[in-house]
Amino acid sequence: MQTATPAPRKAPRPRADALRNRERIVTAAREMFVEHGPEVPLDDIARRAGVGNATVYRNFPDRDALVREVVCSVLDRTVAAGELALAETGDAFEALERFVHTSADERISALCPMVSSTFDENHPDLEAARERVERILQEVMDRAKAAGQLRSDVGVGDLMVAVAQLSRPPAGTACFSADPFVHRHLQLFLDGLRAPARSALPGAAVTMEDLRRA
User: Fold this and answer.
1) What is the model's pTM?
2) Dihedral sign, CA of 31, 35, 38, 40?
3) What is d(CA 119, CA 17) in angstroms, rounded to the nearest whole number?
4) Which of 67, 101, 138, 173 is the most buried (most CB within 10 A)?
5) Which domains does the chain have, with CATH numbers?
6) What residues does 150 pair with on adjacent strands?
């Protein structure tokens, strides 16, 4: 007599309210990390998210896990903006513009420095998120160059450095005081990327690998 092999059990899907709570925690953490830095008390994040402390720790066992989730979610939303722009318009330079302005709105310049200062920057989730950003940005820039829209002497590293610098408030000013001007200055930078180039840039196009070695 053969014994029937039990069918494998499916892992239960998270409840909708549990997913909403997780999203609220990540959103609140992103806001407070930008305002106060990565050492903001988790209790304060729980209060802003409108959940209990236990809910925060149930989703994120420690601060590193929460910071990593915030950074990865920001990177993924930025990637989605570039992909959506390509799908909607097919205009590579417009996709590049949307990527840059979304990066500023997502506070990448404030969040990304946390990666090297608070936890393992080589964590697989973080590396995968960075690779997605670099891949879509390289694709967008290659398409714009092929279409004659983007000057040929700039690289992904050039763009990332400029976005980080231009969306960061000047020293001595409050975090949000420069917000009204960020998109104006980013657009000035983007206009300078258009082909044909009006000047020759010193040095060579900067890659992400160049930045990692610097």
Assistant:
1) 0.75
2) negative
3) 29
4) 67
5) 16-61 (1.10.10.60), 69-213 (1.10.357.10)
6) 194
